[in-house]
Amino acid sequence: MDFKVETGRRRAEGSCTGWLMTSVAPWGDTKEDAFDQCLVELGLGDSRLIRMEGAMLPMGFEPSPPEDLAMGSLVECHIAESYTYDGGIASAGVAWAQCITPEGDECSIVATLSTDQSYEETELMLKMNLKRKLASRDLEVVKHEIAVDEVNAAKDHHGCALAALILPDTMNMQSGPVGRVRGGFTKSAGTSFTPGSGTSKPAQKTNSGDFSF
Questions:
Q1: Would you tell me how many other CB atoms lie within 10 Å of the CB of residue 203?
Q2: pLDDT tens column, 87-96
């Protein structure tokens, strides 16, 4: 009997492009004004934004150069925003990583962070945040990119630091390609619940691969 065992990396189906951007606004009359100034600086001032949650990016994600976005366009974003006032500092950062699962499937994740710390401290914290996300999903990093920015608010003004991973094409994907179901990471919705049985437990630390930022 002839049979074939699949080995090696399996490329993700689908196509999704995006880019990292940061901006700061130290002269806001209000927090909302500072945030809006950041959006305009990022090129998102004329777009309708959908804020995304969760670490996983659409299958087939690839980084691309920034593009001009049409007025009224619907854009998916992973956003980190941080505010300060009257001489204070704030920082925001976003990072993505292209990865491989233990089964050899390609995928990508994202991490965001907002702090009242300096650029350097925030960058270190964001790297650790990204590493934890990789470890909790047992992913090996292939390549990554990080963007962090810091704002120092002007006297008697509001400041905003904004970092975003902008994904302009995902709203056109509708029911786009998805990856396999990976067992052992989430509890099935159909599993019965027994009070006191302990349906959740601390995640076991796994090695996400030795890599340096």
A1: 11
A2: 999 999 999 9
